[in-house]
Amino acid sequence: MSIKDWPEQDRPREKLLARGPAALSDSELLAILLRTGIPGQSAVELARSLVDRFGGLNGLLSAPFEAIMALPGLKQAKVAQFQAVVEIARRVLAEELKSRDVLTSPDRVKAFLRLSLQHLDREVFVAIYLDAQNRVLLVEELFRGTLTQTSVYPREVVKGALMRNAAAVIFAHNHPSGVAEPSHADEALTRALKSALALVDIAVLDHMVIGQGDVVSFAERGLL
Prior knowledge:
This protein has about 220 residues and is an alpha+beta fold. Helix content is about 45%, strand content about 15%. α9 links the parallel β3 and β4.
């Protein structure tokens, strides 16, 4: 049965307009983005199958472009819509971080970093430079590596922080394996960066490791 044949109060778009987006399930929200289904599946049924296949909306929206494109019924235009939604969310979070003390909203920092890094297939090391009020000055990718490691040079990190006139910094990098657990090398690097930056009075507030849907904070683990 096509969604057009459903009772009006059960159609995702009409339900959203009548009751608000919070009343919709993940599949119903996704169906509004998809707009149409495929032969044998309505948009809602297709959305439900995608959510199940990727383990939720987070898994779907962070999946590689090629993995989504390979599925029946998902053409380039639909995948582009997914990516646009993720980028809009990332930019909204970035704007929020620039306007407030990031230490009062650690969950927003984690959400921003997940959207920015968890889908990447190579390790990327990022610095979030902060002013004296812990507001974001700039988010910068410093180093890009391989599937399993990134070479990080403390001298270049210190130079970058001084150039941005940062008072503090938060570091982050992703684990393409999907496991966010910090390695011994991650811990040693963090200690080295903290020591180097302390010489120029720049504080390291955190180092976050981004996995698939998970973020580990060094500060919360007591590793700083």
